[in-house]
Amino acid sequence: MNVAIIPARGGSKRIPRKNIKNFMGKPMMAYSVKAAVDSGCFDRIIVSTDDIEMAQVAKSLGAEVPFIRPGFLSNDQAATVPVIKHALQYLIEQGEDIEIACCIYATAPFIRAKDLEEAFSKLKASDKDYCLSVTSYQYPIQRSLKLVANDSIEMLYPENYLVRSQDLEEAYHDAGQFYFGRCDAWLQEKAILANGSIPFVLPRKRVQDIDTPEDWEQAEMMFEVIHATNNHE
């Protein structure tokens, strides 16, 4: 069996209730649930939450909520891998035989079913533990700056001061949409951002972290542009 697990705790502070907050006419979580359903990759789609209201919204969207997540996995310090491990252990105790589980974030309005299908196939064809969504940095990180005392700046990597941007290696970061992983890797809590993983590269125009009100506003503008131009590629 293959399962999608959508973590959606209720205690977001910077954007209260962000997992079910209205985003362009739908609860934010709706985009993740729909992509999971439309992908056809999963036998079950489960939302892991500590919040009764979020559980009700998840069920109304077509997801399952077979348990309420315990408090020790729902605070600000709770990491993703233990949350997915907890869900898998619950399912295994119920008699499920799980091959691959995908963590899909609840705040991923640009996620596409096609991306899930292709990433799923990529992991199955490999011998790796995980396949995760990544995207490239907009600007070379080797020329990044930090703010220091006296209203001054310093380069983080001053050795690159005279190196042209086009001569620097392109860098990538976690796109924050999904992680496909083999069940054993989740249960062993293997690191995702490590060489046991393979990337699924997304274009920057379909990636937006949503942690602050400014992020939310940026995501709304991106969504409007993408849908106004019917540009989903």
Description:
- Strand 2 and strand 3 form a beta hairpin.
- The protein has 6 helices and 10 strands.
- The chain is 29% helix and 22% strand.
Summarize the structure.
With 233 residues, this protein is of the alpha/beta class. 29% of the residues lie in helices and 22% in strands.
Short key terms for the protein model shown above:
single chain; alpha/beta; Spore Coat Polysaccharide Biosynthesis Protein SpsA, Chain A; globular
Chain-wise SSE layout:
Elements lengths: L1 E6 L14 E2 L2 E2 L1 H11 L4 E5 L3 H9 L19 H14 L6 E5 L8 H12 L5 E7 L8 E4 L3 E4 L16 E11 H5 L9 E5 L11 H16 L5
Parallel strand pairs: 1-4, 1-5, 6-10
Antiparallel strand pairs: 2-3, 5-9, 6-9, 7-8
Helix pairs in contact: 1-4
For the record, give the distance between the C-alpha atoms at the N and C termini, rounded to a whole number. Answer: 30 Å
Uncertain runs are none
Strands across the major sheet, in which order?
A: 4-1-5-9-6-10
Largest sheet: 6 strands, mixed
Q: Which strand-content bin applies to the residues?
A: 15-25%
How large is the radius of gyration? Answer: 19 Å
Q: Give me the CATH superfamily.
A: Spore Coat Polysaccharide Biosynthesis Protein SpsA, Chain A
SSE pattern:
EEEHEHHEHEEEEHEH
CATH architectural category: Alpha-Beta Complex
Proportion in helices: 25-40%
Task: Say what the CATH topology is.
Answer: Spore Coat Polysaccharide Biosynthesis Protein SpsA, Chain A
Structural class assignment: alpha/beta
Strand elements, count: 10
Mean pLDDT: 96
> What form results from the Cα inertia axes?
globular
In total, the number of domains comes to 1
